[in-house]
Amino acid sequence: MDQVTPFHAFDPADRGLRGRSTVGRLVRLAFVLATVVGALGTGYTIGKAGWPLPSWAPTWLIPMLGRDEGSAPAGSVVFGGGSDGHPVHPAEHSAAGGLDHLPVRTGGDASARIDQSASHAGHGAAAVGSAEPAKKVLYYRNPMGLPDTSPVPKKDSMGMDYVPVYEGEADDGSIVKVSPGKLQRTGVRSQAVERRVVTRPVRAPASVQLDERRVAVVALRSEGFIEKVEPVTTGARVRKGQPLMRLYSPEIAAASAQYLSLVVQPSSSGPLLADGARRRLENLNVPPDVTAEIERTRKVPLTITWPAPRDGVVLERTAIDGMRAPSGDVLFRIADLSLVWVLADVPEHDLGAVRLGQPVTMRTHALPGRSFTGRVDLIYPQVNKETRTTRVRVEIPNPDGVLLPDMYGDVDIATGSDQPVVAVPDSAVIDTGMRQVVILDKGEGRFEPREVKVGARGNGVVEIRQGVAAGDQVVTAANFLIDAESNLKAALQSMVAASEEKPQ
Fold first, then answer.
1. Which of 91, 162, 170, 471 measures 20 to 30 Å from 108, CA to CA?
2. Average pLDDT of the chain?
3. For residue 471, what is the DSSP state?
């Protein structure tokens, strides 16, 4: 049992301390009472003056202000309306699901304001007194672009809110809307559709060959003997009429004597016989200069000079001094190189674009930096079964003779029409294999995918036969991103349509 110390046992100094402690408690109590009275007076003054309640004021002062919610000034916040439509205490900072409270202000029916705040649930807070009608949320799509939708607000695995899709945005056909910031980040660029000449060069290996029409041979139509060959060798350039050799032919000599006799001693039938003798010399291919010399000198030459039949290069020489030359043997082969053929082996898959008369440019390995132009002269009617190529012949002028037979090079055949057509850059066309699509720029961040039919390609452009017209704006850069957005939008719309068709 505790012992009670008698009063007289206390020390006087201790009694003094106790006295001071009691006085301190009384002072503190008086200070608290003064604070409460001051707060009540301040609240009464605010209530009578109609001032809005400060944010720091405790809510229990509201009944002491001498006014109810309806007497508060218009526009002041009375309580927080939850985004789910239920009124909540202002001290609660957010509604269920992490959504911010909507402020409910004085003036009007509180329940109506709560209903109005509830109508905005799921797609952000809006001004309660706004005159614009709230848009209806159709669904929420994945913020990362995945094919996932939700009828109610939700978050993905990374904590990102699903993006609401409002009524009217999904009813804009195939139009894709992209924000200006995203356009700048992705580097979207557009270009106007123009009418251009579309040519596609078909490249193929080629070789230089002689023009068969410009090759001549020197051969005798009767047996003869070569007395002397002029200093003309293989590879030498000769001109038409230049002497090649001197020869003796018994048959040519006999025909020359007969012609001379008829010319010197004409008879009543002389003109007819003389004409027959002249024709015999022509059949023996005697040069006209030899016949003229017989008429002029009235003598039959023992040997005759055989001239070059045309300008060109001596490709072959078999004539030798003193040799016997049987009829028909080739003594000289001469080719004119002023015009040559270029034979190109065009792949089978490019053959359909090649036409007669198309311009051709040739570059040879032996003459770098030089190019030669010509036109397609013939497409051979046969495909090489080993190489799956078709030979195309091109005529190319060669006035300086630098293109030599069997020289190799490459040709570029300019296929396509020389008439301008509607064309877009190659980068504007998205080819999926089954169809071709371009993205039209409608302005203000709006884009529309458009299926087109393409034609010829070349020079970095593609002919558009159907789908767009000259003057339209097409996207030439980052169009794959917009096409992906369009495909995602179409997929989401189909998913929403399928969900609406399901029976409830």
1. 91
2. 75
3. T
